Amino acid sequence: MQAAPLRATSRPRPSVTGALRAVEAVLLRGGQRTARRNAWTSVLEDRARAKDRRDAQYVLEAATTRHPQAT
After folding, report:
1. Which of 25, 50, 49 lies closest to 36, judged by CA?
2. Which of 5, 23, 2 minimizes the C-alpha distance to 14?
3. Is the dihedral of CA 31, 37, 41, 46 positive or negative?
4. How far apart are CA 22 and CA 35, in angstroms?
């Protein structure tokens, strides 16, 4: 009796991102996961506000260094 030939299975390999999300799901239950994501969202918003402040400061400094032209 011959053994059946081995077939290669075409399972997709798990991605690193998928593996990290699975670990996150196990380690951080619902509330902790939400808190971590909220904290990251706050970090991104703080960075955006800081950029807006830098841009506004640049505009104000540029406006104050200009000399009005004589008419």
Report:
1. 25
2. 23
3. positive
4. 17
Tokens read off for 54? 């830098």
- Position with higher pLDDT, 31 vs 57: 57
Closest by alpha carbon to 55, among 43, 44, 67, 63? 63
Q: Average pLDDT for residues 47-57, to the nearest whole number?
A: 98
The secondary structure element, H or E, covering residue 67 is: none
Predicted TM-score (pTM) of the model is 0.50
Residue with structure tokens 């798990």?
Answer: 14
User: What pLDDT, in 10s, does the model give residues 16-27?
Assistant: 888 888 887 787
Residue type, 53: R
Cα–Cα distance measured from residue 44 to residue 51, given in angstroms and rounded to the nearest whole number: 11
Please give the helix or strand (H or E) that residue 58 lies within, else none.
helix 30-65
